[in-house]
Amino acid sequence: MNKWAKIGIISGVVLVFVLLIYYFGTTEGEETYTTDSWEKTYDPQDKGPYGTYVLKELLDTNGLFGNFLDLNMPLEDGLVDNDGVNDIYFYVGEYSYLPDSISEFLLDFVWEGNTAFLSTHDIPWGLEKRLMEDGEDFYESRQSVDTIQYFKFEHPSLSSRRYETPYIYRNEITEDNWVFMTNERLELYGEDTSMVLGTNSKGRINFMKVKYGYGELYFHSTPYQFTNVHMFKKDGFQYAEHLLAHIPPGRVQWDRYNLEPHYNFDFGDGDGSGGNEPRESILQFILNNPPLLWASILLLVSALLFVIFKGRREQKILPATESKENTSLEYINTLASLYLQQRQHKKLIVLKEKTFINFIADHYYITSKKPDMTYIEKVAVKSQVPKEHIQRIFKQFENLKGGYDVSDNALIELHQMIEQFYKKCR
Fold first, then answer.
1. How far apart are CA 172 and CA 31, in angstroms?
2. Confidence of residue 33 (pLDDT cuts 50, 70, 90)
3. Is the model's pLDDT at 147 over the cut of 50?
4. Smallest Cα–Cα separation from 341: which of 417, 396, 408, 397?
5. Which domain holds residue 42?
6. 86 and 187 belong to one structural domain
7. CA 33 to CA 39: how far, in whole Å?
8. pTM for the whole thing?
9. Per the domain annotation, does 296 fall within a domain?
10. Could you tell me if residue 314 is inside a domain?
11. What is the largest CA-CA distance in the chain?
């Protein structure tokens, strides 16, 4: 593959990557979403049309509530009741998947003097059967199908203002079923137990408060009003601001865990039993988590580039070469043994002298054709062996080379002197 082909491939991959970022990571305008995902998640981390990220930011900045806790675990494990603090259970979702036993836990939490706010199309059965006479429906069975609703608050300072709420899907206004509540069959626990806080323009209730024990329950039947697509509108943002002002200040504990079923449900019998929990495939899980999605895209792009540029070898594998062995010492030992066996003592002395001089040259980089006193002094300084000992070695070499007959004892004495040098030298 030539240079220009590689440049073209890399440019194409970079261009595709930029287009993916532009397509998945940008939005246009304040009220238009460039996305194919219009899933109703109601998740405070979701910046899509039906997420509640803008509401979360409003809670963070309006000053009425402290830093909210993100409950992404079973309510009985995560909901905290702090002494001296108004703890607020906060839930926004199309449905709440609280089972009966956990609904009782939530009611006990409110009874102790805390607050619960639920914006959902249908409250959990465990709450409904405790609050309504004979387990009647808290939400009206008759719904309103319309494209736009107009809502208002009952508080005198807010009652003159109407808030337009068009139902938007895929950037178009379309029809939806609008759900409302009734307070006619509430099982009251004292005077002024319930209070209507908000209605639509026809007087149908969508926001109310119920006193329970030492605490309060706030019910809101149109969670759509808290989605990003509506909160980006002026009426939507102001409506949410005024609604939150009805809730007493405290610390919000936002329940994300029950946006999806974690138990077995059968909505036909209302007892929280039966049915199977829906499961996500691995691909759905990755697509629903942007960090995992981008990690997968990067992994695929990296693998593609590796296959293109490193998939084939650039050169053949070279066979391993055996390292060369230094056999000089072995050769000298063999030769010395041969001279000793043949009693060629003079040749053995010459060989030992050459070996000794070569040792000095290799270790101390001192050479001389004829070892003189200057040479011996240099060797003595570098080897730290007394010069007298070195001088005796070379004198013994001269004596033995000049002698007619060399005895075994003379050879042994020379060998011992050389070995002593090797042991003492540095």
1. 11
2. low
3. yes
4. 408
5. 23-279
6. yes
7. 13
8. 0.56
9. no
10. no
11. 139
